[in-house]
């Protein structure tokens, strides 16, 4: 993983995450977290993906802290192992929604991860199941909203 430092106009490598392979899981999702009020610790949160050797979906969570320059393992994502979910950060939390499970059943469930507490919370289910959806963060009036758009239903 490399990081662009826009002020200096250069790319810098990050250390490898605590993962058997020196690369990230295949198809993992990455969210940039800026603290609950924009003043908190700046982190990258890597969620899920496939193991590069077995191609099996994973529950892994890795958190990179820009202050310490180090990775740590987070609490694994609960529930069924997801593939092709949407993931983004809003207000200091990382949101995950949609996807499909190991049997290719589309999911309507959603989760929130708090990197400060290293804890997951179950959110209300979406109105419809969505595989391969996209997430959008809408910020208005000092708050943020997580919108899930697109995707499609699938059957096992």
Question: Notable features of this structure?
Answer:
156 residues, mainly beta, Neuraminidase, four-stranded antiparallel β-sheet, 39% strand, globular, Kelch_1, Kelch-typ_b-propeller, KMD1-4
Mind explaining what this structure looks like?
This protein has strands at residues 2-5, 10-13, 29-33, 43-47, 61-65, 70-73, 86-90, 93-97, 110-114, 119-123, 134-140, 143-149. It is built from no helices and 12 strands. Strand 11 and strand 12 (143-149) form a beta hairpin. It has 156 residues and is an all-beta fold. Helices cover 0% and strands 39% of the residues. The model has no long low-confidence stretch (mean pLDDT 83). It has one domain (2-149): 6 Propeller (Neuraminidase). The strands form 4 sheets. Strands 3-4-5-6 form a 4-stranded antiparallel beta sheet, with no helix packed on it. Strands 7-8-9-10 form a 4-stranded antiparallel beta sheet, with no helix packed on it. Pfam families: Kelch_1. InterPro entries: Kelch-typ_b-propeller, Kelch_1, KMD1-4.
Layout: helices, strands, pairs:
Layout: E1 2-5, E2 10-13, E3 29-33, E4 43-47, E5 61-65, E6 70-73, E7 86-90, E8 93-97, E9 110-114, E10 119-123, E11 134-140, E12 143-149
Antiparallel strand pairs: 1-2, 3-4, 4-5, 5-6, 7-8, 8-9, 9-10, 11-12
One letter per element, helices H and strands E, the order comes to EEEEEEEEEEEE
Report the average pLDDT across residues.
83
Euclidean distance between termini CA atoms = 34 Å
CATH topology: Neuraminidase
Report the C-alpha radius of gyration, rounded.
16 Å
